[in-house]
Amino acid sequence: MKTPRRPSMSMHDKQARERLGDALFRYMQGQPADALADEPDANQQALRRYRLLPRILQGNTTISTQTALLSQCWSAPLGVGAFAGDRLFHEEGLLPIARACRRLQLPLVISEETVTPLEQIGAAYERCWLQLRAAGDVGRIKALIDRAAQAGMQHIVLTVLAPVHPVAGLQPGGFSVGDALKQRGWRTIGGSEPGVAALPAFPVWRWQQISEVAAHCAARRLPLWLKGILHAEDAAQAAQHGVSGIIVSNIGLRQSARWATPVDQLADLQAATPLPLLLDGGVRCGSDAVVARCLGATLSLSVRPVVSALCAGGESAVFDLLSGWINEVSAISHWCGVSEMAALNRTFISEVDNGCIG
User: Which residues bind FMN (predicted)?
Assistant: First the structure.
């Protein structure tokens, strides 16, 4: 068996590293403290285990990449996930990504640890989702949901895994976004003082709090997604507590390299819940989103390649990256012999016995 190797850096990655410096770039890449030296990204490797099976004699003449999700329609089974401290990566923060997603009609998830004001992002793109941490006082979450509704946000994401390590010095890459924002005097959407909101790092909530938040979202007609679900028993309970969907995620392996990958858990979660599943983690190209769709994820979220593009070339680079992925989804799906995304399923994929990137 071949040894999996770490893929070489893309042009955007190289440009981002030059602009950000090693420390912030390593944070963006998210390698946790317990990862081995040069250990490849397990989320990315999990997706690359699968190969697609073309069906070129089906006679289909058209292809639509449009993707229906909870009564809304997106242009492709793709979206951009949340990341913290946006202005550390670009002087305009998240706004160039918001404008690119508006042009392409793709969902954009915004972290509560974003520096750019929520209302400003909502004015740039009215179809964004706000991601909040399931920690601390529920009243704080409700107030942010109210603010999100007023700003025109379309969905609420509640992450039940903290995106950072609770021990100082063990954050991804050893870099603290909170300290960097505090030094600059920048506040975030979810904070009242410079830096990020001081919240418990470990998940201390129970299903009672989830039900309370779900009811608050429902009263404002905002679907609620739980992010960070990997265990089938948690997925089975989600629908009983008012949750609209699940984002299958290990938070980019930022806490530990030992978490299961979302790709490997999709089948068990799909069997455990009727809720729609989104994949978060390891998506690096359009064909990854096609594989994820075949495995049961209605839509895939990507972060790191988009942030690298943002650093390298702003809105135009982000737009080119995402539009190229949409074109790739369209071409590959057409070669698979389908005319719509809903027709993709496990019969179109084959699993190989190693995780090498070729």
Answer: 82-84, 111, 131, 159, 227, 249, 280-284
